[in-house]
Amino acid sequence: MADLLSIGDFSRMTFLTVKALRHYHDVGLLEPARIDPQTGYRSYRPEQVAQARLIRRLRDLDLPVDDVRTALAAPDEESRNRVIVEHLERMSRQLQQTQETVESLKRMLSEEERIAVTHRDEAAVTTLAIRGAVTGDTVVTWWIEAFTELHRLLAVSGVERTGPDGAVFPTEYFTEGGAEVVAFVPVGSVPALPGRVEVVERPAARYAVATYDGPMVDLDAAYSAVGRAVTEQALAADGPVVERYLPNGDPADLIDHTTEICWPTLRA
Fold this sequence. Notes:
By secondary structure, the protein is α+β, with helices and mostly antiparallel strands. The chain has helices at 7-14, 18-26, 48-60, 65-72, 77-109, 139-157, 171-175, 219-232, and strands at 5-6, 34-35, 42-44, 117-122, 125-135, 165-169, 178-186, 198-202, 205-212, 241-247, 257-264.
């Protein structure tokens, strides 16, 4: 086995430290070709250099060890690349979230003008609604699917809406990180109800309202503004917060909207 490389030479050829090589051995990513039974000294084959370099590249991308192991064990290049591409897509999403958070922090530090809060009485209304148990991680996907389904029902049935889309968020959604949320559309009449769509009668109520039109990452600014106003005026009442979504243009575009944060209040 004279062609074996010492761990020092292997380290120089791969830019992997001895500590890293020992770690990759311990986690089963890169087994030495030989371990001296007396000294524990590790040796490697020259053909292992390519694998070691690939491991270093993948770890430089922060690919988790388990995913590196999956990539190395892939039966073909396409399967291996699929693991890498999926990780790169996750990194891109994380980078976008980081950039959005940085911009949000800059806006907070600039002490922008406070969001105005108004008060409004809403009459009782009949709605078509969809309920769903969601968390902060799943709410956006559920929200899009629910309103897509509700809008499709309106289009097929010909029933006219009597107000903007809305969603009911109970306190537990914020305090526990998840709860049953109700997406609804106010309507003047009720069609035949398919699937999970149901009729929900919304009661009359009074709200403090903050209107927000900006990046969703800053929506908490509107919640803070209306919550502060209600607290300062000692008008806080029990009940869920209701979001209403006012289209900025095409009503069919679910994403392009202004959000009203409607916080339940006592009557002044």
